[in-house]
From TrEMBL:
Residues 17-161 form the Orc1-like AAA ATPase domain. The lineage of its organism: Eukaryota, Fungi, Dikarya, Ascomycota, Saccharomycotina. The keyword Cell division does not apply. This is Orc1-like AAA ATPase domain-containing protein. It comes from Candida theae. Belongs to the ORC5 family. Residues 348-533 form the Origin recognition complex subunit 5 C-terminal domain. Its main location: nucleus. Residues 308-340, 385-409 are annotated as: Disordered.
Length: 537
């Protein structure tokens, strides 16, 4: 049976602004597997709570379910094996009736063909006598690095061509339903983006931030008035954040939650210092107007947990910095640029840093100059007169010979490609990666010739072999590029385009790093990134 009216009402109170979607799920998924659809497709903008609604609905139904993050799977085989393993752990083999050798055999027998997965799944259900209704949720299905569209039709016809009758599949898309599966008779549930009013209501009910009782004491000692004032203060703060950033974030709940939590501590500083009361939120907003107009927050919002050493020093030593500037010290301006470092980016693997650098160079560089920059044979090319005049004008300004306005660049002097990152082909990123890693990697270019005692020609032959190996070096044979690119994409460092049109262009990628982050990564690996960003025209 489906959810009762009382259960639906309780679920709608828990999950706000999704009444129609919950009712649709209740119509297509039943506690009885014979009354449920074999495959349900869900589509909607990425961060609007599709997975949350499905998870809460399945919990209310009290059904065994498995949620698989498809964006973490780099191949079809990995996706099918992970589905089988999770189904076995979440209900298919609760009593561990299968031996370990049988589990390994069934898992290793799964290839990139759906028939092998179905055979292992039938064996699992038959051996364990598993007959309870199980729901498999394939989250972010369209973000798998390998094209798995044919699995949609396979899951839809699974009950027709196998003995598995108690498995229902929910597939979640974020970039549109592929055209290859439109003709299938699968129910489709569309999740509409939240409006600004709905976003404000959801975030206000979530209560992401709290005020401590010890910091705010009213004179009358009325706790009820104080709690209501705290709630009103938080509600107005959420409205300020959403009104300021909704034109940029849209209904991206993940990004808005991140902004609300990150700006909260700085927003309540005047309140904690006693500059304003809790009822003067408009004055507090005007005092912190820079928090809602800062370009730094916008440019780094797609990268989670981004902080620099300058931010940490500014939080802990803000008063000391102000006293130093007041005393007239002139060395602080030159030292700040060298202290910029990264927080969680330093934890990335060595190869991932080079992948980010290659993506940054490809996103901001001119493709016509790739042969000139990344090849051993430098192409002789006459420079344009405009470019020569521009360099002369900037040099004269730097030397103090050009007057007050000679050093300013006009709009024609600024390359529009350097203002924003462009989407590029993955092949171009990999080509640049192979070149810069081959010639700039410390591990690959390390030589033992200076540390060894030359007793014969054997050492020379060994060094020649190293040079020959370096000339034939291929990065893809040594590391799993697909896995590292998928990790960087999930962290927000890389973005990609996706199109459901089978006749459209291939998927293109771009880098989300800004210049301070790219420069800090380049310094950490000893890569001269500035040399590759110079305009050759």
């Amino acid at each position: 049976m489906s959810l009762t009216m009382e259960e639906l009402a309780n679920l709608k109170l828990k999950v706000k602004e999704r009444d129609f979607e919950i009712a649709s799920l209740n119509a297509f998924i039943n506690r009885d597997p014979s009354l449920s659809s074999s495959c349900v497709l869900i589509n909607g903008y990425k961060p609007i709570g599709k997975t949350l609604v499905v998870k809460e609905f399945l919990n209310a139904m009290q059904l065994n379910h498995t949620i698989v993050a498809c964006d973490e799977c780099v191949s079809k085989q990995m996706l099918l094996q992970r589905c089988f393993t999770r189904i076995r752990k979440d209900g298919g083999d609760e009593l561990n009736t299968l031996r370990a050798t049988d589990v390994v055999a069934l898992t290793s027998a799964i290839s990139d063909q759906f028939a092998s997965f179905l055979t292992s799944l039938e064996t699992l259900f038959d051996e364990t006598e598993y007959e309870a209704h199980h729901v498999l949720v394939l989250d972010r299905f369209d973000q798998c690095l390998d094209n798995c569209v044919e699995f949609v039709s396979a899951f839809s016809k699974m009950r027709e061509c196998s003995s598995v009758r108690n498995l229902s599949v929910v597939i979640v898309f974020s970039s549109g339903i592929p055209r290859q599966v439109v003709t299938l008779s699968n129910p489709i549930i569309e999740f509409e983006p939240y409006s600004e009013t709905q976003v404000i209501k959801i975030l206000q009910d979530a209560q992401l931030c709290h005020l401590k009782n010890s910091s705010f004491v009213e004179d009358d000692g009325n706790d009820k008035v104080l709690e209501s004032a705290k709630q009103e203060f938080y509600n107005q703060y959420v409205k300020f954040v959403v009104d300021s950033y909704f034109s940029y974030t849209g209904s991206d709940m993940v990004m808005l939650q991140h902004l609300i939590v990150e700006l909260w501590d700085k927003f309540i500083e005047p309140l904690q210092m006693g500059m304003y009361s809790i009822n003067e939120i408009v004055k507090i907003f005007k005092h912190n107007i820079d928090l809602f107009n800062s370009d730094k927050i916008i440019s780094n919002s797609s990268v989670p947990d981004y902080r620099t050493l300058r931010d940490d020093e500014g939080d802990g030593e803000g008063d000391n910095a102000g006293q130093t500037l007041g005393n007239g010290s002139g060395n602080n301006g030159t030292g700040d640029d060298e202290t910029v470092r990264l927080g969680n980016v330093h934890d990335l693997p060595y190869h991932s840093k080079f992948i980010l650098l290659a993506a940054y160079l490809a996103s901001y560089g001119n493709q016509r100059n790739d042969l000139h920059k990344y090849s051993k044979v430098k192409v002789v090319k006459y420079k344009k007169r405009g470019s020569t005049k521009k360099r002369q004008r900037l040099n004269n300004s730097a030397n103090g010979n050009g007057g007050t306005t000679a050093g300013h660049m006009s709009k024609n002097d600024i390359d529009s490609r350097l203002l924003t990152a462009n989407y590029v082909d993955l092949e171009r990123i990999l080509a640049i990666l192979s070149v810069i890693y081959q010639h700039s990697s410390i591990t690959l270019n390390q030589s033992d010739s200076k540390d060894l005692l030359y007793l014969g020609d054997e050492i020379i032959e060994l060094e020649n072999k190293k040079l020959a190996e370096k000339s034939c070096f291929t990065l893809t044979k040594n590391i799993d590029l697909n896995l590292q690119i998928a990790t960087l994409y999930s962290l927000g460092f890389l973005s990609k385009t996706s199109n459901s049109d089978i006749l459209a262009a291939r998927i293109r990628w771009k880098c989300n790093l800004d210049w301070p982050m790219a420069e800090a990564i380049a310094k950490s690996v000893g890569f001269p990134i500035v040399d590759f960003l110079d305009d050759d025209d």
